[in-house]
Design goal:
By secondary structure, this protein is mainly alpha-helical. The chain contains 42 helices and 4 strands. It has a two-stranded antiparallel sheet. A two-stranded antiparallel sheet has the order 3-4. Strand 1 and strand 2 form a beta hairpin. Keywords: TPR repeat.
């Protein structure tokens, strides 16, 4: 529901209506009468049933009599009033006793009072209640179905029906019954809230990401929205809707909703905790930290002024202080965090009166165990408060937090005093807060005290292995790797960092530490791996937020404050394959083992591909799926081998495209990552013109993973064909592009094959833009000449799309540059003059510019004329057709194009001499006609050519409105067919096998007959149109 106004009544109403389906309730409610329960009754039960039916009939009759009596009384009163000559007036209401000013009627507040049910409905409800108490649920549903059939607005009937379905285990129908009941009382806020809560009760039993869970969240959202339409200040509905939004994965929207709830109830601690919880999940964590910190600070100030720890819906506790301090860590405001820690801890320990401690900003003697340093502070009274309210009362994890703050600020003396009280040999002190051990170890590693850091890491490992309540997560692996790095054990450190990434694929710090280690390697490969790791870390930093919903608690259990770290990392999904896997560069043995595993996996996929290939070609859908899966694995494996690609292409495959001017796509706060990325990029960028020398080894092997490179190319191209047949033409282009970018297939033969396959995919997909782009490659790079130009026209012709790309500006300019280049070369050769290279615009990489045999190309001139013709620039098109005709005057296509250009130009409004243009046009058309017939006669078997000539002349006459002349040539097309029938008398449709093969799809009999039929209709000759249709247009 992103993008909706959360308080828009129209949106909420539409959402609720869209989600409501009467089919989900009971099929029998709206179809005929109530279903008769299939129950075997004895004679006594028959009597009871008959008595009940009799009572029902009696009650209905009594109700009808009462209504009739009321109508009769009203009729008599009207008649008496009219007889007296006075208009009818109803009797005035009785006045209250006493004199004085008449009081205004009170306005009813709250939901409208329900109308009294008719007696027959009341009687059926009593029967349904009685059957429900007897646990006869089938009979209960039958009675309720009858009630809803008579009147679907009976609230109690829907609620009882929901209860019945819930008892029977039909929770889906029970929910819809409650929603139906809530719609009958649209302004009853508690009803909507209870309906939403009821819908969410089954949420824990559903898996994340399933359509069922999404549907439940949508229903709950709609119910809460309906409640807020009536009472916008309802804190339960507001926070409930925010909880639903958060569970839907939109943390930013949920944060805005919680802030709106806080405006109505600013001292509600549950809402403040929700804001703190959501602030850790939004994309901009610093902004969320500012919002959550402000909400907590306002609540703390209010509670301190009131002199209590009790807020609305809860008490302020130590856990709230821990959550509050996390936002100072995110904002890296260490000094302010230390001040808040000391102030709030003093308040929680009952010493708020000792405000003089706030003056000791850089000194933590307030939290010493003994009074040795405290007695020197003016105003301190040793006996005023117990010793447990000072250093002994501070929780161990908050003392660890103070140590971290002092270490970050560089106050070594105060930090060491706190560290002396954090004894790693006292396991019991850290059992409740084991995560603080990692914080202490990180601070010690930052201060180059690795020997002390390992003691805290060992204690964390011991607690994790003995209690089983915590795990050795990715953070611990990073700390362990940093310890090994400090001791110079690079192989062990590498294993720890890679283990952290395998544990949590979104772990940023592990990638940064691994990149720092690889950056110092002498080999180029190490710096390349460091760059890839930094880029991946930056991408993760940019994508983080607004998607972490797995840790979200359910909104309707008891709300327990979070202990320790506020955000446990999400473990890696074992079924999800990461695009980039860090490679071991230090541990040579494991690196070789990794290469062997990848080779074995490639061999397995190749064997599977060969096994199912024949069945896939035979049309087996299961085999096609298996073949595509194996081919994808092989293609991805080949593309991940960076020796086969230039550096820029390789990092593009991994998704790390270069940013504009080297700017990183990460928030500005992480400038260290951006600086490291830029430094590695500059070190890795090859000198201009030397990239091929740097990237290519001296000699490539003939195979990869035991598969020859020719076979690899077949896999690439066949996989592209399979993708385009499956409707994934963009993915097919990516595969062809990857094959073209590889440094393996650089010969002209393989490059030509790749581009032909690419063109085939574009033609199959009907993608004219890609067809034009590939055709330009053939015209520019591969083989400039007549065949390439014809291929350009053919590819644009077979695409069943508008000619927008064929006539686009880039295509026109490209063809025009080709013509200018050709003209310059020919003119230079004819004039035997020397020109500088700057005077010749060349668009080809071939040696055609120096070819002495090059001449003006008729196909190129005609193509550009056709482009201009298609854009209705007939005068310019005629000049290029004239140039082409000067080179080949007997070419039928040129004469046909010239004639049609004149005719179309004559039909334009701006034509100055229409008769002259038509005369010129038909002169060229009949020259085409004669040349075509002569060519057919010389060929000896030119029925198709004669048909074409007749048909084109007929179409030209139809174009100018001369239908009587057009019919004559259409008749020649049909007579051409009849002559063949008379001469041969064999073949399909009167054409023998040889002639049918020659004509192919160019048999214009049906088109000519259809046009004749149309002309007959236009001229009013219905009988002639029918005769033509029966003779030529009957499908056999």
């Amino acid at each position: 529901m992103d993008g909706m106004d959360l308080d828009d009544p129209a949106v909420a109403s539409a959402h609720a209506t869209a989600n409501f389906s009467m089919n989900m309730i009971d099929p029998s409610l709206y179809h005929g009468g109530a279903p008769e329960p299939d129950i075997q009754m004895d004679d006594d039960e028959d009597d009871v049933a008959s008595n009940m039916s009799a009572d029902s009939d009696a009650l209905e009759l009594r109700a009808e009599v009462e209504r009739f009596d009321a109508q009769q009384e009203a009729f008599v009163a009207r008649q008496r009033a009219e007889a007296a000559g006075l208009p009818y007036q109803p009797p005035p209401p009785r006045k209250a006793g006493g004199q004085g000013r008449k009081a205004k009627p009170r306005k009813s507040i709250g939901p409208r009072k329900a109308a009294k049910l008719p007696p027959d409905i009341q009687f059926r409800m009593s029967l349904a209640n009685e059957a429900f108490q007897q646990k006869d649920y089938d009979k209960t549903i039958a009675h309720l179905s009858e009630i809803i059939r008579i009147n679907s607005e009976v609230f109690n009937a829907w609620m009882l029906l929901s209860t019945v379905h819930e008892t029977l285990g039909n929770r889906e129908q029970a929910i819809w019954c409650r929603i139906s009941a809530a719609h009958l009382t649209p302004r009853d806020v508690p009803q909507w809230i209870s309906t939403a809560e009821y819908a969410l009760e089954c949420l824990e039993d559903l898996e994340d990401g399933t359509p069922e869970k999404d549907e439940v969240l949508r229903r709950a959202y709609a119910c809460y929205t309906q409640a807020l339409e009536t009472d916008r200040s309802n804190i339960t509905a507001r926070t409930g809707r925010a909880d639903v939004i958060m569970m839907q994965g939109n943390a930013s929207k949920a944060l805005a909703e919680y802030q709106k709830a806080l405006e109505y109830r600013p001292w509600n601690i549950r809402t403040v905790r929700n804001i703190a919880d959501v602030a850790l999940d939004i994309r901009d964590r610093r902004k969320g930290a500012e919002i959550a910190r402000g909400a907590y600070r306002r609540l703390i100030d209010h509670l301190q002024e009131e002199g209590t720890f009790e807020a609305e819906e809860g008490w302020f506790e130590w856990s709230d202080l821990r959550i509050y301090l996390e936002f100072f860590t995110i904002l890296e405001t260490w000094q302010e965090g230390a001040q808040e820690l000391k102030e709030i801890s003093r308040w929680l320990l009952g010493r708020r009166e000792e405000a003089y401690w706030d003056q000791w900003v850089d000194d933590d003697r307030e939290w010493d165990i003994h009074d040795d340093r405290r007695v020197a502070v003016p105003g301190f009274e040793p006996a005023r408060f117990p010793q447990e309210s000072y250093g002994r009362g501070l929780p161990i994890d908050l003392r660890a937090k103070l140590y971290v703050y002092r270490g970050k600020l560089g106050f070594d003396y105060e930090a060491n005093l706190h560290l002396q009280l954090l004894d790693p040999t006292k396991e019991d002190d850290f059992m409740d807060f084991p995560d603080c051990l990692k914080d202490i170890a990180v601070t010690l590693l930052d201060r180059d005290r690795s020997d002390e850091a390992i003691r805290f890491l060992d204690l964390y490992r011991h607690i994790a292995t003995t209690t089983g309540e915590i795990s050795l997560d990715a953070d611990f692996s990073v700390c362990q790797g940093r310890y090994h790095m400090a001791r110079g054990e690079k192989a062990a450190a590498e294993e720890c960092f890679i283990a952290a990434i395998e544990e949590d694929e979104d772990h940023i710090e592990a990638r940064v530490q691994l990149a720092n280690m690889y950056e110092g390697e002498e080999m180029q490969e190490g710096r390349e791996e460091a760059f890839l790791l930094v880029r991946e870390a930056m991408n993760l930093e940019a994508r983080r937020g607004d998607g972490v919903t797995g840790r979200r608690r359910g909104p309707y259990g008891p709300r327990k404050p979070r202990e320790g770290k506020p955000r446990p990392r999400k473990p890696r999904d074992p079924n999800k394959k990461s695009n980039y896997v860090p490679r071991r560069l230090i541990n040579a043995e494991k690196r070789r083992q990794q290469e062997l595993e990848m080779t074995a996996e490639a061999a397995k996929n190749f064997q599977r591909l060969q096994e199912v290939q024949d069945r896939a070609l035979g049309g087996d859908e299961q085999a096609k799926g298996d073949w595509m899966k194996a081919a994808k694995e092989l293609v991805d494996d080949f593309r991940s081998y960076k020796q086969f690609y230039p550096w820029e292409k390789y990092i593009k495959f991994l998704g790390y495209a270069a940013n504009v001017q080297g700017q990183a796509a990460v928030p500005a706060r992480n400038m260290k990552l951006a600086a490291m990325e830029e430094r590695l990029r500059q070190n890795l960028a090859p000198v201009e013109g030397q990239e091929q020398m740097v990237r290519l080894p001296l000699k490539f092997p003939t195979e990869h993973r035991g598969i020859p490179f020719d076979t690899w190319l077949d896999i690439f191209l066949n996989y592209a064909f399979t993708l385009v047949r499956a409707g994934q033409h963009r993915e097919a282009y990516v595969v062809c592009h990857a094959a073209r970018d590889s440094v393996i297939w650089t010969s002209s033969e393989t490059t030509f094959l790749i581009h032909v396959a690419w063109a085939s995919c574009a033609v199959y997909a009907g993608d004219e833009e890609t067809c034009v782009a590939i055709a330009r490659y053939f015209m520019r790079d591969y083989m400039p000449g007549t065949d390439s130009y014809r291929m350009f026209s053919a590819m644009c012709r077979v695409c069943q799309t508008p000619v927008s790309w064929y006539t686009s500006g880039p295509a026109q300019k490209f063809i025009l540059r080709q013509i200018k280049t050709m003209d310059n070369i020919v003119m230079r050769r004819d004039n035997t003059t020397t020109t500088t290279a700057a005077e010749i615009t060349t668009t080809t990489k071939s040696s055609s510019a120096t070819d002495p045999d090059i001449a003006l190309d008729v196909a190129l001139l005609t193509i550009y004329g056709h482009i201009l013709f298609t854009t209705t620039s007939y005068t310019y098109a005629l000049s290029y057709f004239a140039r082409a005709a000067s080179l080949d005057p007997s070419n039928p296509l040129i004469n046909l194009s010239t004639g049609l250009a004149y005719v179309h130009y004559a039909l334009k409004r701006q034509a100055t001499n229409r008769q002259y243009l038509l005369t010129q046009g038909f002169a060229f058309l009949f020259r085409y006609y004669r040349d075509r017939l002569d060519g057919a006669a010389e060929a000896g078997a030119g029925a198709a050519q004669r048909q074409e000539a007749h048909f084109n002349i007929a179409r030209a006459y139809s174009l100018v409105g001369l239908g009587n002349l057009a019919v004559e040539y259409y008749r020649k097309v049909l007579e051409e067919e009849e002559e063949k029938e008379d001469e041969d008398g064999v073949g399909v449709g009167g054409v023998d096998g040889e002639q049918q093969s020659m004509m192919g799809n160019e048999d214009l009999k049906v088109e000519a007959a259809f046009n004749v039929r149309t002309l007959c209709y236009l001229l009013g000759d219905v009988e002639g149109a029918r005769a033509v249709a029966e003779r030529w247009l009957v499908l056999e």
